Amino acid sequence: MKNTRQALREFGASFMGPAFLVYAKTVEAQGAGRVPVCLAREGWCFERLLTRLQAQSLVTFDNSPQYLKVSRTLLFRANLGEDFLWPLALGNDFEGGMLDLMRKRFGLQMHEAFSVLPVELLQMHVKLPEQQDEVVQWLEPHLERLKALVAPTRQGVMAYLKSLGLTDGPAPIMLDLGYSGTIQKLLTRMMQRETFGLYYVATKPGKSQQGGAIANLAGAFREGISWGEGHQMLDRSLLFESLMTAPHGQVVDVRQDSDGGFEFCYGRQAATQHHFQDLQEVFDGAIEQVAEWLKTGVSFTPQEVEQMYENFATRQGAIPQCAWHLFFVDDDFSGNGILNPLVLFNI
After folding, report:
1. pLDDT at 213 exceeding the cut of 70
2. DSSP state of 204
């Protein structure tokens, strides 16, 4: 019987390896003259993949890949109170109390929320996106206090971006699973420079005007599709999202310290953070397989990768039991808490 370590590595090779291979080659092709910027929790895995392949001279980039430790929650917090933020921040599903909305979507701590918003407002129930106009009206009288509260976060984010050289120099090509490019759009507006984004799936590809700058979005596997149309790399993307996470979980705040360094605050950890040594075996198995394929000239089409993913995403028993404990994802953003996609999709 295979030991658990070897079984996890083989699972990584078969489940994540084909998509990694196509994505790495697409990044290489589209990243000429640009700096690959790996975003959010998924970016930790992408940066690890691209850096190791580059070190073996299996892919070539004009600029070394960088990991950017950001999240939607962090950028929503940094821009809280700005008019442009509301369609991005309130357009996704959420149901719960206003206090939970401010904590889970905008990263406010409980004492911060109570310091700037009245108790009566924080106790109100909200359902998004249906009530987004009402939420904006409720928050309108408190915008200046909200902006003052999050000003240090915005300053921290901008200083962090500048420290990595992203506010000038080569244009960034931002890498993430997808799907509508919210993080890329917010960064484009904050930096006021053109950016490029390459995702597994881009639901709204093309140019997006963000203030005085343009965010360009593209998908490596699919573009212009919607949820529920039967494309499993989108509809059941939670399987990838569960695994493609960072050891620290979600970033919810960042401040620059007196020495010029940065202090990050993180949200709660899901099961994958508690078992990260196992997840690294999955990553390493996938990356080593990709390296071997590149050395021997093996390739896949995006359509072939989609078919392989669909086999895992729809067939009971396709995902080995040794990896079941890794399939949990934090969906506090929508008010759902921790989700298990294996149970959700009955696989």
Report:
1. yes
2. S
195-202 and 172-176 strand pairing: parallel
- The pairing of strands 172-176 and 35-39 is parallel
φ and ψ of 46, to 5 deg? -65, -40
Alpha carbon 45 to its chain's center: 11
- For residue 64, CA distances in Å to 55, 217, 270 come to 10, 21, 30
pLDDT at residue number 197: 98
Is there a contact between 216 and 196 (Cβ–Cβ < 8 Å)? yes
How many Cα atoms sit within 13 Å of 339 on the Cβ side?
20
C-beta separation of 345 from 313 below 8 A: yes
- b/e map 59-89, b = 16+ CB within 10 Å: bebebebbbbbbbbbbbbbbbbbbeebeebb
Helix axes 276-296, 4-15, angle to 10 degrees: 50
pLDDT band at residue 89 using 50, 70 and 90 as cut-offs:
very high
93 or 296, greater pLDDT: 296
Question: Three-state DSSP class for 265?
Answer: strand
Residue 345 is encoded by which pair of tokens? 């999709």
Structure tokens at 245: 């996470």
74 to 91, 170, 182, 291: CA distances (angstroms): 17, 24, 12, 34
Classify 258 in phi/psi space as left (phi over 0), alpha (psi -120 to 50) or beta.
alpha
Determine contact, residues 122/98, Cβ cutoff 8 Å.
Answer: yes
DSSP E strands: which ranges in 118-256? 125-128, 172-176, 195-202, 206-210, 213-223, 251-256
Question: For the stretch 253-279, what's the b/e string if a residue is b when 16 or more beta carbons lie within 10 angstroms of its beta carbon?
Answer: bbbbeeeeeeeeebbebbbbbeebebb
Predicted confidence (pLDDT) at residue 272 exceeds the cutoff of 80: no
b (16+ CB within 10 A) / e for 8-22? bbbbbbbbbbbbbbb
Residue 131: its pLDDT value, please? 97
State the burial class of residue 280 (Cβ atoms within 10 Å of its Cβ: 0-12, 13-18, 19+). middle
Calculate mean pLDDT across residues 143-169.
96
